[in-house]
Amino acid sequence: WDNRLTNYKNTIEWYQLADDDEIAASNIGVVYSKEIKDYKKAIEWYLYSDSIKTDAGTLLGLATSYEDIKNYETSIKYYKKSFELGNKNSAYNLALLYEDILKDDKNSEIWYKKGIEKKNLSSLKGIISLYYKNNEYIKTSAYMINIITYPNFTKEEVINRLKNYYKLDNETIKKGYELQLTMPGLPKRYKGKLDLDE
Known about the structure:
Layout: H1 11-17, H2 22-36, H3 39-52, H4 56-68, H5 72-84, H6 89-101, H7 105-117, H8 121-133, H9 137-146, H10 155-164, H11 170-182
Helix pairs in contact: 1-2, 2-3, 2-4, 3-4, 4-5, 5-6, 6-7, 6-8, 7-8, 8-9, 9-11
């Protein structure tokens, strides 16, 4: 027993169940990772949980903990395994790792697209910033327009952002609209009018 766990709710109960309960063991890993910031201990608990039963959420925790200790190769391995088991957030986290830490925009783009195919909104927002950063404004516009198909985003807000934040002209926005109608990998497409002020 680690006295550092005492300050967190349910840890005693999880510790008692952890011998054969992968969720309890994984929860202790989460406390070490998110609260105590002892990533090596978190990894021990996540690996122990995985030895009982493999779970996509546990593998995501394992990947982020390896990323926190800068073991990127192992982190990538577990992000991929987590994604294969159905955790769509893993694609987004892996794309960010490639973009922000490894400075590998090509792999970042691949993993944002994998997240988008699984309807992960964070991946969609991530690819918008990636394309804008790389001056690919038609693609920026295409993915931004596609955000209209998600709840809580109005056409007016999206067009306003394209014009005022991204400083894109009507012609670029229209080309983006046309592109998102045909490009592969989008689970849904915006087919309504843009109502751009000419």
